[in-house]
What we know:
Blueprint: E1 2-6, H1 12-30, H2 38-45, H3 47-53, E2 54-61, E3 64-72, E4 86-90, H4 103-118, E5 123-129, H5 133-141, E6 145-146, E7 152-153, E8 158-165
Amino acid sequence: MLIVRGALPQDDARVGELLVEAFVETYARKMPEVVVDENRKRDLRDVATKRGEAAVLVAELDGAVVGPVAVFKLGSPQSQAWLPNAVDLRHLAVDPRCHGRGISKALLDRAEALAREEWKVSAICLHVRRGAVGVARLYLSRGYQRDPAGDLAKPTVFLEGYALRF
Length: 166
């Protein structure tokens, strides 16, 4: 049975390892030119800090945590949302052994409902690494729209902005 719930402190290690595994394995397979460095891995593993700034949700399949997503709260200093009254969605990942089971959909359904119905925000902003076509396609299929106003050019990566407006 698949459930989505708020992450607990005892989930931190598993969520951190899932994020590292999903990002490293996915990039190695689909974008081999991308290297996930130790600083990025450390950031991905720092789930306790994320829980202080965001609603970290986890998908649990038959009692095992198989995927997280984080929604950074309105006004969080860690939020990268560029639209007014918007939250920032990040760190969607699914255990590679569980792909194709609707886990991303369940996590996004809950994250979007939280933002829209409970927090009553106007939009969700997120970033997708340029070239991550499959990831972009997932969000576009859910109604997110490409928004160049949210693009971020960092020294090692170009992130394209997407937004879901309510």
